[in-house]
């Protein structure tokens, strides 16, 4: 098969990882991947429905791509969450779409595209993964040469009332630890410097067997996995996202034990009000959450903490919002993703009366954003004159002289450096702090 495929990805890190897996499987089946849609025989949109009006955005993109093309019509496919949730109705909404592949059809994509190229129309695959399907991606076939995303769990069983993920990605399924460890060793041997263990809730990791974890202690399977992965001596290990209810303090103990477990934890709280947390069915209170934060703050190294917050959940009063503002103040986050609540059809929250007006949602969003900006300026400012280790990942898009990368505490850092240092870890002295990034100068690099 010598057809060309253009794959465009929307949304979260899980989607980026799925696209990478799809790209590897497509290349292995003989397809060439294109960087732009103009001349591709096949165009696939890998969609995310966590954000608002996801299906609408896909159709807008399909229209734009169609206008860009002067020649024959391509095969157009929609994969991922929107495909899983909307199913065959996508055919009726856009006559150009002739392939629909759900969130667990990634490995079957080459076969599905082959059928479309053979002239078959309206192809649909919303099935589960095949039994025994492997998650592995060879180190040689990945997009970045220095940082690799390694999924350890997919799906979600939590059913927070506002969230579509359990419906679009199905139930939690953990990957065998032995497979994860083998993949990380291969990445290490191939020269990767940093890996991210990823999943909707990594600390809910619960594989079917202990294979690969037998030699490691830990209060939960995830704690044992962290130690097993740290023992591979991969240089830098990060993990995201952590779910508060399943966050065991032994995770902090593991970070204390191993320097290669990086000092950054993403622990979304969503709200500071117990009433709202109950309505969201998060399974934790503000004080449960703050206990976890205390454990993190008592770690040997300072661990950077980031979070997600939803403002304007149905029924959220001004007093509830004040509780959120107070919690944010108390924690002092290194970074915050703030979302205005928006309804996801089919979720329990969609049945609630959304009595917080658009204006009120926006006002709360802006107030929280401003407060966070002030905290962040202080936190980032404290890095000035400090020395941090940065993985040099790419040339900066803002300045020709600068390269950019992340610190072990997951801050974006920019500094002048030659292209030859790509992929190296440099000691950098921070000279300037902006609200979302640091600037510095290299002290030493290999
Ligand atoms: N599993 C992670 C957790 O529990 O925190 C997060 C996964 S979700 C893909 C990413 C973020 O999107 C959530 O933390 C939440 O803040 C936001 N989100 C999800 N559904 C939303 C909705 N209906 N309206 C606004 N924000 C939403
Ligand atoms: Fe969505 Fe809650 Fe699952 Fe996170 S834990 S993916 S917010 S249902």
Structure write-up:
This protein is α/β, with parallel strands linked by helices. It is built from 13 helices and 19 strands. The chain has helices spanning 13-28, 54-68, 81-86, 89-93, 109-117, 165-169, 177-189, 221-230, 250-257, 274-280, 286-297, 318-331, 358-381; strands spanning 4-9, 32-34, 42-47, 75-80, 97-101, 123-125, 147-151, 153-154, 173-174, 194-198, 236-240, 264-266, 304-311, 335-340, 387-395, 402-407, 412-416, 425-433, 438-444. A six-stranded parallel β-sheet has the order 2-1-3-4-5-6, with helices on both faces. It has a five-stranded mixed beta barrel with strand order 15-16-17-19-18. A three-stranded parallel β-sheet has the order 7-10-11, sandwiched between helices. Helix 5 (109-117) links the parallel strand 5 and strand 6. Helix 8 (221-230) packs parallel to helix 9. The longest helix is centred in the last third of the chain and has 24 residues, at 358-381. The structure holds S-adenosylmethionine (SAM) and iron/sulfur cluster. S-adenosylmethionine binds next to strand 13.
